[in-house]
Amino acid sequence: MKVLIVESNPDLGRVWQRHLERQGAEVTLVDSQEAAILALYGTPFEVIILDLVLESGSALAVADFANYRRPDARVIFVTNTTFFSDGSIFAHSSNACAYVQSNTPPEDLAAMVEHYAAGR
């Protein structure tokens, strides 16, 4: 299972990365739109964990590019804001499979990744 994490907060990204690696996932952690696009060129990820509010770049641009370059990849959007809390993210991103808060327990996020990767 190959997972891309796009998270501006390196500490949070590493917590998620460690939990997924303990489950046997191969995880790439990046912190910007540019780094995510470069990663998507080279690796067929099954799941992308994508912070909705990136410090550098646009999460929707990453999701859009992933939909083009890796159409089978599912995107789990995470956020610490109420932006898109109405569920409209699913109308904006056809590859979105989940929308959760950044403070979701890492083990719950890892279980979601495993679930969505299994369906690919």
UniProtKB/TrEMBL annotation:
CDD domains, alphabetized: REC (cd00156)
Any one Gene Ontology BP term: phosphorelay signal transduction system
InterPro entries documented for this protein: CheY-like_superfamily, Sig_transdc_resp-reg_receiver
Record domain Response regulatory: where: 2-117
Keyword terms of this UniProt record: Phosphoprotein
A Pfam family hit: Response_reg
Spans through the membrane: none
Residue numbers bearing the 4-aspartylphosphate modification: 51
UniProt protein name: Response regulator receiver domain-containing protein
Organism: Ruegeria intermedia
